[in-house]
From TrEMBL:
Record protein name field: Cyclase family protein
Gene3D superfamilies found in the cross-reference section: Putative cyclase
Gene Ontology MF, one: arylformamidase activity
Pfam families assigned to the protein according to its UniProt record, in alphabetical order: Cyclase (PF04199)
InterPro entries associated with the record: KFase/CYL, KFase_sf
Domain of life: Bacteria
GO biological process: L-tryptophan catabolic process to kynurenine
């Protein structure tokens, strides 16, 4: 099914029958992707004394409780409320869901004991392109990202200068295949988060950061329409399901 989207003065065509899902599934398993020193997610049937809410145990329904942390257990989208004293809800601040996005692949650079994504790399990847969103895939890119246990591993992160550049470029939605845009242990400076959301000036309430995506290798770099689907949680962050549609030239 071919759809036409009006973007500024340009008409963009996409094939709605060919979605590219770049989210990670959440599973009740120790092999579920994990970060931030928390236990694995749990999906368990509700219980009431001897009654267990599964069909296999004699109930007429399957009725599960789910325990997880959106920041630690998979693809999630967050707003500035993640780092502010004042409460801001992603559900109240993300109002539209289709955006023009650029998928870029970046090889992190060595900086001391760290691997980082620099302003120079972002400048090279985006050039003069005008986009609402950027989708950053880091290499090496293997399916091991779907089960990696990131706690205490000092993963790659975004330099503050790169986040500032994205803000200055007008990027509203930053998607990345890492547990955070910031260094795992940074004494709570959160330099990239603060820079992207402009916490020293007018807050970018409509800007979002989506972490823990997974962009398969068959998804080529280039121009896409992004459908950023979120669960309607009144929270700073929510599980999300970003979908890409290749632009038909």
């Amino acid at each position: 099914m071919i759809a036409t989207i009006q973007y500024n003065s340009r008409k963009i065509k996409i094939d709605l029958s060919k979605p590219l899902d770049i989210s990670m599934p959440l599973r009740a398993s120790k092999d579920n992707v994990n970060a931030w020193y928390v236990d694995a997610p749990k999906i368990e049937p509700a219980k009431d004394r001897d009654w267990i809410a599964t069909v296999k145990d004699g109930a007429c329904i399957n009725f599960n409780n789910i325990q997880f942390n959106p920041h630690a257990h998979g693809t999630h989208t967050e707003c500035v409320g993640h780092i502010t004293e004042e409460i801001h809800s992603i559900n109240k601040n993300l109002k539209t869901f289709f955006f023009l996005a650029e998928v870029v692949t970046v090889a992190p650079e060595k900086l001391g004991e760290d691997f980082v994504i620099s302003k120079k790399q972002i400048q090279f990847a985006l050039g003069n392109k005008k986009r609402d969103a950027i989708v950053i895939r880091t290499i090496p890119n293997t399916s091991e990202k779907l089960i990696r246990q990131y706690s205490n591993t000092n993963p790659t992160y975004l330099l503050e200068e790169a986040a500032i550049h994205l803000k200055q470029k007008g990027i509203k939605h930053l998607l990345i295949d890492l547990p955070s845009v910031d260094k795992e242990k940074d004494e709570c400076q959160l330099l990239a988060h603060n820079a992207f959301w402009n916490t020293k000036g007018k807050l970018r309430l409509d800007a979002t950061i989506t972490e823990f995506i997974y962009v398969p290798n068959h998804v080529e770099d280039g121009l896409y329409v992004l459908n950023l689907q979120i669960a309607p949680f009144e929270n700073d962050a929510t599980p999300s399901k970003p979908i890409l549609y290749k632009v038909i030239e």
